[in-house]
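Audit log entry. Action: structure prediction of a protein-small molecule complex. Ligand: zinc ion. The ligand was supplied as SMILES and no pocket hint was given, so placement is left entirely to the predictor. Protonation state taken as written. Sequence taken verbatim from the request; no trimming, no tag removal. Recorded inputs:
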Amino acid sequence: MADVFSKEKRSDIMSRIRRKNTKPELAVRSLLHRLGFRFTVNGAKNRSLPGKPDIVLLKYRTVIFVHGCFWHRHEDCKFSYTPKTRVAFWTRKFESNVVRDKAANRALRDLGWKVITVWECQINREPEKLALQLEHLLRGQ
Ligand SMILES: [Zn+2]
């Protein structure tokens, strides 16, 4: 079947999917950058560590997950609602995401990594507060 996109357009789309550079993730990266932290987003550790962390700060033996509130079930967050239809489907889906996140966190901690979870709503609502929190968590200040 013929592709509805031109070759260039298709390769642009595919590379965008591969890069996985979601907007919240980019926001956290630029924040860290501004704070002077060095990190990797597509290094060997990002690929091989449990849960494939979005951001790895090798020097601080710390990983950061940038989680969407909806998919990863941010507790007590308004974006973490359950759709009104296909409730069983969504509940199962959410539960498996939460279980997977928890298992990854535990495995990482067992390996001696510090795990930081950044929620999408924090980035949008309180970027400055988030910057302070990250600074504190990473540098212990
Ligand atoms: Zn949230």
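Audit: result stored. Residues 21-139 form a domain with the Endonuclease; Chain A fold (CATH 3.40.960.10). The radius of gyration is 17 Å.
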